[in-house]
Amino acid sequence: MSPRPGALDGIRVLDFSRVFAGPDSTQILGDFGADVIKVEEPTRGDDARYFGATQDELAAFGGISPSFLAFNRNKLSLALDLGCEAGRSVARRIAANVDVVLNNFRPGAMAKWGLGYDDLKALNPRLVYATFYAYGAEGPLADFGANDLALQAHSGLMSITGDADRPPVRCGTAAIDLHASLGLVSAISLALFHRERTGVGQEVDTSLLLSSAHLMNYFYADYWISGNTHGRMGTANHLSVPNQAFPASDGMVIIIAPNDEMWLRCARALDAAALDRPEFLHSSARLSRRHEVVAALSAVTSRLSCAEIVARLGAVKVNVAKVNDIGEAADHPQLAAVGGVVSYERHGKRIKAVGSPFRMAATPGSVRRPAPEIGEHTDEVLAQFGLSEAEIADYRQGGAFGRIAGAPREPS
Amino acid sequence: MSPRPGALDGIRVLDFSRVFAGPDSTQILGDFGADVIKVEEPTRGDDARYFGATQDELAAFGGISPSFLAFNRNKLSLALDLGCEAGRSVARRIAANVDVVLNNFRPGAMAKWGLGYDDLKALNPRLVYATFYAYGAEGPLADFGANDLALQAHSGLMSITGDADRPPVRCGTAAIDLHASLGLVSAISLALFHRERTGVGQEVDTSLLLSSAHLMNYFYADYWISGNTHGRMGTANHLSVPNQAFPASDGMVIIIAPNDEMWLRCARALDAAALDRPEFLHSSARLSRRHEVVAALSAVTSRLSCAEIVARLGAVKVNVAKVNDIGEAADHPQLAAVGGVVSYERHGKRIKAVGSPFRMAATPGSVRRPAPEIGEHTDEVLAQFGLSEAEIADYRQGGAFGRIAGAPREPS
């Protein structure tokens, strides 16, 4: 429990989104004070509950995947079957009284359910209505499904990731998907700011496509202006030398010395006799003698430990970093020192997770709730929004919170 | 010129940041209506003006790099030498009257210049003061320099990017840096929202480190919960099969069919005889027979064109995408269809660039100005903030807008 106010205190978010980007964006809104209601399909809930974990691992974690835990703290779970009118009716009643609605269904799905922007705007003109698409709401690929990997391929990111003599590889994390999360947070926050000044809500959206294009921004600009299409260069790039990974005696380090003064400091800090050579002095010469420079530097670095290289180059302000594995990165004390690690109890177990991706001094992020079970807060949310016990019983009979045994299923 | 209002109309941003993340974040604020004043060192300006372009290319583009063009539309450029007191004094006078200040100097630099949060807050309590750090303001690595590649190494992203039988490679684009841009937009927008409700500004920050940790979120969570540290798998991952790139007759496609129904649709759409086999039917079987499944599917896909595979699998709602190069991606009509491409005149040349990474229906982004020359708007900005001609002359004499020939240089 944080005693400090949150920037979004009192803001209520109804979140229909699933998997990564959408849930991550509402987790951030929740970290900063919003009350987030996560709508989940009553039987299985969010698919991310089972992502990336074997059956044995799921059992060990209390039936929930690390990915779900990573993206769903600070939320109430409302189990709602949108496949029946009773469920959709409850959704509309709640949406009429929240500040933000978010979904990542295929284009047209929310409108088909009477939950489109026009439907909800009529009930709630102050509503900020956010949608996360694959390729967007219109255009030739609007109806195409996609995920992070699909956009790594489509966007050209894959074409510039990997070794020159091998086929492309993926960026190891779902960068495009998670980048879209901050696109959603930005759009929703700006819309709330605009609403605070004008009194009116609006529709905002982003997509895997726009997220990928933003990450590829300067490559597309270069192509449009100069016709350049870059290729794969391992850990190196076309801008400068050295600017890549080098072998150490006990691992790898990256070393970046783009200008001549930095190169000189780098050369002298590591091995002046081997590296401080006139033919390596100028950045253009280092580019044209790339293989020589890399070979000479590699010969020096491979005799030193990562720690030694980092200490020597850090001291002379040359950009250097150890190539960490996941565990070394997660446990590095710097992350905790800047508040990048949060921890909380869930069913008696201590959960560690990455904190918010930015900090606000006067209204800091905080963890107020662990990730929920499916439908854990259904009754609490319904009461909060003023549904009477009789109404709730009717909706329940109609299948709103999950199919009643023996009840007929509506055609979807 | 857009006739529509912007969400940030009337908001003034004083931007001391350089290179990618900071300038990109203020470009987005500018797209949505903010007046952005870019402070540039009078002689060379932002280093990004020369990034990634040869001398010949720079000459061909009017002395400015595609990267700079990509991140600096909708800005006024104010040439200011922060190395002298006259320059810093002008900076303080303007900062006293803006809504947002952004910088990405090393920790302590702004405070040393009398431009720290405490200095400016005293002049302007409503100020939102944003800083973009490398590793953050405190902790053991606070004084370490870094860039995108350094954080790809430090964060563990590099360790999971590449082929299993080769050393790590980089994610081809500066994903961590550009992701931080949206962290800044989010933090600034939330702080403006909070200010609108309470009347008070605050300090916000993010860092390459927090940005990287957010992108690696679910890997760290998995490690902290289960001890898993994943490795490199080319374009594949450990979650499901098929979920990677496959060869086509004229390129590569990615195919993702994580569940059994999708796999069956995929198998039947491509070649039922070769793929619809009982031993491939279950997701766990496909995981344990990964090499067999990939080989069988590759044999099928390599006889078909990319277009054919995309058409067949798209029709049965299996996630599929062509591995595009930069040009194919930038010019794909889908991006323009969703407003992802903007274009404007600059010195008589037409510039094409990636649009905003999210959309706001009532307050859409727009291009109101091309990327500026160094100091192009110095006089305009000074007049806007009420500096008299006599004051401007004094500041000029003091070197505020660039060193006067023959004048002594202050020690820095």
From TrEMBL, chains A, B:
User: What Gene3D superfamilies does UniProt report for this protein, alphabetically?
Assistant: Crotonobetainyl-coa:carnitine coa-transferase, domain 1, formyl-coa transferase, domain 3
Entry-linked SUPFAM superfamilies: CoA-transferase family III (CaiB/BaiF)
Q: Which UniProt keywords apply?
A: Transferase
Q: Which GO terms describe its molecular function?
A: CoA-transferase activity
The record's annotation in Pfam families points to: CoA_transf_3
- What is the protein named? Carnitine dehydratase
Q: What is the lineage of its organism?
A: Bacteria, Pseudomonadati, Pseudomonadota, Alphaproteobacteria, Hyphomicrobiales
